[in-house]
Structures are given as C-alpha cells and as structure tokens.
Amino acid sequence: MTLQDKSVIITGAGSGLGAAAAVSIARQGGKLTLVDMNADGLKATESAVKEAAPQAEVLLVTADVTDEKQVQDYVDQHVKAYGAIDGFFNNAGIEGKQNLTEDFTNAEFQKVIAVNLTGVFLGMEKVLKVMGEQGHGAIVNTASVGGIRGVGNQSGYAAAKHGVVGLTRNSAIEYGQKGVVINAIAPGAIMTPMVEGSLRQMGGDNWEEVGKEFVQPNPMKRFGKPEEVGALVAFLLSNEAGFINGTVIPIDGGQHIKY
Question: CA 184 from chain center: how many Å?
Fold first, then answer.
C-alpha cells in the first residue's frame, strides 16, 4: 500500500476525477480531505471510499476554491486533522460555455479563469507554505490536453489550463530543493459529468451519438475511465514517483500525438 498513512487533500472531490482518485488513494492506505462545493457529491464520494476501503479516514469540507479564506480553511482543517499535508490533488475545475472567442463575454471568461486557474493557484499557495516548511510533499494539478494544444470554442478553458501548466513547471523549479514535487496531468476525453455536460452542449439529446464521433480521432477510439486517471494520480502522489517533477503527463489514449 504505497500511500499508507499519507494524508491527501483532493479538490473537486464530489465527482469525476476527484472521486476516482479518492477511491484509489484510500485503497492504498491514504487519509483524505475531500473538498467540493457540492455537499451531496462529497457524501457520495465518501460512501464510495468507505465501500472500497472501510477503514479509511475521510474529512469532508464544503468550500469554494476561488475564495481565499475558504481555501485557507480547508488547508487548516486538514493540518489540524492529520498534522501534515503529504499530497494534494489540485483538481477542481469547470468547462464553461463553448463559443468562438469573439462571442465569449468577459463574465463567462473570468468565471472559467477563476475556478480553473485562480483556484489552482490559491490551493498551491496555501499548500506549498505547509509543504515547504515540513520539507516534503507531492502536488498533482489537473491541466488538460487543452492545456498543451488548442481546443476550438473553448478559449477560456484552454487559456486557464495552459496557465496551470505554467504554474506547475514554474513551482516545480522553486520547490524541488525543498523536497516537494509538483506535476500536472493532462486528461483527454474521460467520461466524467463535466465531459458529459460538454457533449450535451454540442449534441443536446443526441449527446451519446456525438460522443461516439468525438472519440474517433483518438487512436484508442474510446473514452477514458475516471479510474484510470485516479490510478495515475495515486502513483504521482506516492514515494515511487519521488523523482518525477515538473512534468505534464497526458492521459488521453494518445489523442495529443495526432495534432
């Protein structure tokens, strides 16, 4: 159990990648603080964690990752409960509306930036202060394939995720000597509620057929599973990945190599 007794904060833990990572980490012995705005989603994830690992320690914190005080609060609650922050899956995010760049409103753009970039920065800022002082830790930020190449009709999302890549690489330079490793994952089409929402924007009631077409450019011609991403996150937070730093790892079935 490679994460035995390690304590991990996960944002965006109420569904999708955050929930899958929580289960994977708990199975490996990790102790969890699960953060999300959706209290019902957090309870559902806690139930899934307890089913997979009945002895797992789980703390639930309802918080908005764009609010600095609430970010500090989830960090403080975690440290009070567990004494240290061994790992941080900085995952909360939204897609936002799909539109041409000229048709985005400033409000729509700023909303996506606030959650997907500012929220990631605030989490890193607060967590790195703790990890730097304790002299160890691992952070995994959720970027996207849209953070390493262009994505049509998603300017806000792509801009934010490119920013996450930059934060990851820059902070890895700063904190490696302090015993902290910082990496990002770049998921492609993973079947999560957020991706389903995107497909519904494109196809309405016909979204499942749109999904079948959506994955055709992928060499594997299928959607990824949240559990596949959760396993990668758990590995990157473990000691076995202790010399991986400043890396952005696509997990997309090979989609990125075709563009």
Answer: 9
Residue owning tokens 């691992």: 138
The full set of domain ranges for the chain reads: 7-188+224-251
Residue 229: predicted pLDDT: 97
Q: How many angstroms separate the CA atoms of 259 and 257, rounded?
A: 6
Active site residues: 157
CATH superfamily of 7-188+224-251: NAD(P)-binding Rossmann-like Domain (3.40.50.720)
- Asked whether 87 and 2 are in contact (CB, 8 A), the reply is no
Angle CA 164–253–17, to nearest 5: 50
Closest CA to 33 of 7, 2, 12, 53: 7
Structure tokens at 52: 């997979």
- Would the pLDDT of 193 be above 90? no
- Check: CB of residue 139 under 8 Å from CB of residue 91: no
Tens of pLDDT, residue by residue over 119-172, are 999 999 999 999 999 999 999 999 999 999 888 888 999 999 999 999 999 999
Cβ–Cβ < 8 Å for 70, 64: yes
The position carrying tokens 């990157």 is 236
pTM above 0.85, yes or no: yes
Sign of CA dihedral 114, 119, 122, 128: negative
